[in-house]
Amino acid sequence: MLTILIAHLNNITLSFNPTFLPIQKAPWFVYIIKWILISFLIGILAGSASAFFLESLEWIGSYRDKNYWLLYLLPIGGFIVGAFYYYWGKGIESGNNLLIENIHEPIKPRIPVKMAPMVLIGTLLTHIVGGSAGREGTAIQMSGSLSDQLTRIIHLSIEDRKIILLASIAAGFSSVFGTPLAGAIFALEICVIGKIRYQALIPVLFSALIANYITTDFWMVHHTAYHIAIIPNLTGPFFLYSIVAGICFGLTSLLFIKTMEHLSKLFKTVFPYPPIRPFVGGIVLSCIFLILLYYFNNTKFIGLGVSGIVDSFQQPAHSYDFLLKLFLTALTLSCGFKGGEVTPLFFIGAALGSALSIILPIPTALLAGMGFVAVFSGATNTPIACIFMGIELFGSACGVYVAIACAIAYICSGHVSIYTSQIVGEAKSEELKKDEKIMLTNL
Predict the structure, then answer these.
(1) Tens digits of per-residue pLDDT, 5-32?
(2) 4: nearest Cα among 114, 12, 22, 177
(3) 3-state DSSP assignment of residue 370
(4) In CATH, which of 1.10.3080.10, 3.40.830.10, 1.10.1140.10, 2.60.40.1930 is domain 27-218?
(5) What is the pTM assigned to this prediction?
């Protein structure tokens, strides 16, 4: 019924003739009703998919943590994931970048619905054997592939398809992290560096809010809570310390992306047969994780690493924690395992910020929170979304510190990104003006 109603609304131009109305037409009314209904559908699809995924991930993580012998299966798990995508995943290997490319060029074929189950299975396999990967990529890809089918069912225009894909990104991001405002702005920022798509504001906002409600209130899935107890007033010295921290976060974003690039090229050059890449990568990962487990009794680098993030807010992290997580995540994803980059980026940023509190006189939890979102800001070129995420997760009191860190990290990372299909809409500085209108893949 909803799809029929939306299809009718799509062809309606609503006119008002009563003399007491100061306007004769109200196309905005049709627009709002139409996108509320579509956002409702997207929110249900994305929120329910994310709820199932998060609950599955929780169960798998708990089971793995009670059965560390599964770490020995990393090479086998890697080969299965690699073969799964090599033989059945043609056309969807690029993941989130495929969604962005379809927003740039919506005349392309619709995103295959098989992306949703394939990325779900690939990610769960990655996590059950201990791969260091995230979850946002999975949630966004499930949301995007399911939502894109609506454009066929409702017979929407090419421009509407762009908006649906943006709304699906917002819904997937919002539902997996419990941050609807950040999810909405993330979708508006993600495709073009330096420019925001205001035309899609209502759809992405409604989709993010509904998806978050479906996940957290309807399906009762809970997200990790973080707390920053001490937030000093922003005096001159704290302002300077925040800038220094922001530079460190931005350079770390750059290091992560470049490490991913070099490892990906290395695996593709040395191992032309794709399923072998995660098999070999799995051998290296398994050795490192087992050494950490049996010689150092350290398991926080396995999987998502949420326990490591929580620890970073409570006490200064070791100076090498962020580097080790950075390498393990880059290795996991560049060799062919599936999952997202964002939660590991949260770990990397929080651990770096926590370690910096030893030399920068900013409270440990505050610096960890700043790094949590700032490294993500530099790696995705979405500073406004990351500022809102910091406020949603940690409270408005830390907003000014988060804003400084995210803005500086965004500038310092240059025109690179974990999403190589981004286009440089407006250069970050005059010196980088030559990059405008170019996709990052081609830089």
Answers:
(1) 566 556 654 444 444 444 445 678 888 9
(2) 12
(3) helix
(4) 1.10.3080.10
(5) 0.94
